[in-house]
Amino acid sequence: MRSSRTCVVLAAAALGAVLVSAPVALADDGDGFTIKDPRITESSGLAASRAHPGVYWTHNDQDGPYVYAVDGKSGETVARITMRGVGKPRDMEAISVGPDGAVYVGDIGDNRGGTWSHVWIYRFAEPKVLKDRTVDAAQYVVKYADGARDAEALMVHPTTGRVYIGSKDQGGGGLYEGPARLSTEGTNVFRKVADVPWVTDGAFSPDGRELVLRSYLGAESFAWKDGGRGLGEGRSLNIGYRGQSESVTFDLDGRSLLFGAEGERSAVARLAVQGAPGSGGAGSSGGASGSASPGPSDGSESAAGGRGPAGNGVTALVVIGAAVLLWAGLRRKRSRGA
Predict the structure, then answer these.
(1) Residue 292: domain span
(2) What does pTM read for this prediction?
(3) DSSP letter string over 11-46?
(4) Transmembrane ranges (predicted)?
(5) CATH code of the domain containing 98
(6) For 111-130, what is each residue's pLDDT tens digit?
(7) What residues does 106 pair with on adjacent strands?
(8) Strand, coil or helix: what is 255?
(9) Which of 71, 69, 48, 67 is nearest to 59 (CA)?
C-alpha cells in the first residue's frame, strides 16, 4: 500500500510543475467517448489503430491476455483479441502501435515496488478485419540495465520502430531505450537515456517529433531528438484533473490528444492541440499548419485554465484535491497487486 507521504510528494511535485511552467493550452473539442464495455474496468493503456482509423486499442491490468478494440465515436467494443503464445499476464499497463503495423502491449507494471526479475512485451499484427478472435503473439523478455523497476508507459517510435519504456518512482522516473529490434531469443535489455517525471503513460506524435508523457495529475510534452538523449525540459500541458489518469494517445493526424482513465464506463477526453506543427507537436510553438498555444504572455489567466497567480491558485487547490482522490485509488490498486 502506497503511503500518504508518497502522495504528498507526488502532489508537491505536480504542484511545483503547475506553478513554474507555462501550460500549453489544449482545447476540449467535446468529441471524446465513454468506454461502455462492462468487461473493461481498468483501462490502463490507449493507442490509435493504424489499420482502422477511429478505433482505439485498450486493455485491463490483469484480466488475461486480452486486448479490446473500441470505436471512438460510440464507445462500443468492436473486437476482443485473445493473444495466443504468451504466458499469463501479470500487470499489463501500456499499449502502442508501431510503424510495422503491429500492436505492442507492455506487461511492465510492478505493484510490488520493482521486484520482478523481468517483465514482458507482447506483439501481434493488427487484424485486417475487426471481430472477436485469437491471434498469435510474440513474447519478449525485458530487463533494465540498472535493475528492476515499476513502469506504466510503453511507446513505439513511429518512424524508427524502436521501443521505449517510461518508469515511475517517488523521485521521478526514467526513459529507457530498447534494442534496435526486439528478439524472442534471450533477453532484451533496456537502457536509461533520460530522466523524466513520474509517468503513467506516453505517446509519440505521428511524425515522431514530440513525446507526450502523462502522470496522474498532468502531462508534459518534449521535443524528440537524439533518441531521447536530448530530451531537455518538457512543456506542461493544461489538461486538468481526469480521474485516475492512466493513458494517452495521439489521433492518427496528430491534431488531437486523447486521455483516458481507469474505472467502469471510463471517459476518454479528446483535446485538440491548438495548431500543432505538421502531424503532431503538442508542446512546440510556431511551425507549419498550426502549433500549440501556450496562452497569454502577460501572466494573465488563460481560457484553458490556470495561468497567472489567480489561475495557479485555483489549480493548486485542484491538485491537492486530486492527490487525495489519487491516494484512494492507489491504495486500491496496490492492495489488488499485493
Answers:
(1) 4-337
(2) 0.80
(3) HHHHHHHHHHS-PEEEEE-S--EE---TT-S---EE
(4) 310-330
(5) 2.120.10.30
(6) 787 789 999 999 999 999 99
(7) 94, 121
(8) coil
(9) 67
